[in-house]
């Protein structure tokens, strides 16, 4: 089940975040998004399997973060979350979803490419230790 994240989900989300990223977001950041319609989780039997944060920047939907708990990777969780983000973006009449991904993270890039995203640019030194690849999904297709 995909639903909007609440404050009670934050400990599970922070755990996923810490297991997924070298430079994780703090619980304070996630608390600031609690109950925000673009902050979604996927849950099964009361267990949070993954989350996504879709925010609006300059009239475009921006996928700020998405992660799946390592125990549930390669089971379609991220794909379901991404589909949820696409539905949210379309419901709010956004024509594209934009994201940045580490240049070194080829697995994530392949995931986004396989889900219709295209590389549209790069940002040098976006991360403290890496460049960013900018990718977009055109929702007008």
TrEMBL record:
<keyword id="KW-0808">Transferase</keyword>
<dbReference type="Pfam" id="PF00583">
    <property type="entry name" value="Acetyltransf_1"/>
</dbReference>
<dbReference type="InterPro" id="IPR000182">
    <property type="entry name" value="GNAT_dom"/>
</dbReference>
<comment type="similarity">
    <text>Belongs to the acetyltransferase family. RimI subfamily.</text>
</comment>
<keyword id="KW-0012">Acyltransferase</keyword>
<dbReference type="InterPro" id="IPR016181">
    <property type="entry name" value="Acyl_CoA_acyltransferase"/>
</dbReference>
<dbReference type="GO" id="GO:0008080">
    <property type="term" value="F:N-acetyltransferase activity"/>
</dbReference>
<dbReference type="InterPro" id="IPR050680">
    <property type="entry name" value="YpeA/RimI_acetyltransf"/>
</dbReference>
<keyword id="KW-0963">Cytoplasm</keyword>
<dbReference type="InterPro" id="IPR006464">
    <property type="entry name" value="AcTrfase_RimI/Ard1"/>
</dbReference>
<protein>
    <submittedName>
        <fullName>Ribosomal-protein-alanine N-acetyltransferase</fullName>
    </submittedName>
</protein>
<feature type="domain" description="N-acetyltransferase">
    <location>
        <begin position="1"/>
        <end position="140"/>
    </location>
</feature>
């Amino acid at each position: 089940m995909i639903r909007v994240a609440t404050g009670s989900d934050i400990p599970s989300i922070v755990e996923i975040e810490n297991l997924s990223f070298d430079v994780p977001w703090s619980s304070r950041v996630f608390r600031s998004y609690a109950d925000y319609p673009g902050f979604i989780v996927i849950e099964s039997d009361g267990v949070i399997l993954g989350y996504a944060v879709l925010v609006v920047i300059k009239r475009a939907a921006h996928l700020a973060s998405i992660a799946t708990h390592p125990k549930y990777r390669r089971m379609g969780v991220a794909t379901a979350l991404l589909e949820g983000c696409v539905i949210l973006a379309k419901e709010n009449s956004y024509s594209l979803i934009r994201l940045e991904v580490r240049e070194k993270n080829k697995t994530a890039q392949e995931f986004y490419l396989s889900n219709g995203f295209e590389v549209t640019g790069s940002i040098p030194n976006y991360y403290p230790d890496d460049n960013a690849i900018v990718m977009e999904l055109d929702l007008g297709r």
